[in-house]
Amino acid sequence: MAYYRSIGSVPPKRHTQHRTPSGGLYREELMGEEGFSSDSSLLYHSGIPSAIVDASPWDVPRQATEEHRPLKPRHFKLHELTDPDWKAVDAVTGRRLVLGNADVRISYVAAGEASPLYRNAVGDECVYVESGAATVETVVGVLSARRGDYVVIPRATT
Length: 158
Fold this sequence. Notes:
Keywords: Dioxygenase, Oxidoreductase. By secondary structure, the chain is mainly β. It has strands spanning 27-32, 40-45, 96-100, 105-108, 125-128, 133-138, 141-146, 150-153.
């Protein structure tokens, strides 16, 4: 069963004309993981949402995993992974893989720079802010996070 939530100005019915106060049309964008066959959101834009001015792939650094047998309790000293020049590191390209398998990857980063625009089309992301603060800017709004917050970013969020 679908659950609808509306924020801001939306038309009375989905997939219909939605006019701006000046009479122009808002552009409709369907955002979701599986198109019409799964949960999705309708976003209304005053500009054209597909007008991408620049796009370039980012090659993820080597993130191969190795089996560790026998399985033993481990103490990960993640703070020792901090780059000495962490203030020049961003949260996207500065990540270091700690644990992972075919379903999940756990990385660690200490970052002091703003990250480039980024979209993970492969998986959802869960970020824990251990210290400091962060601002996540997406097409659906700006989210502020501070020490102790978890931020969940669904896949394909821009």
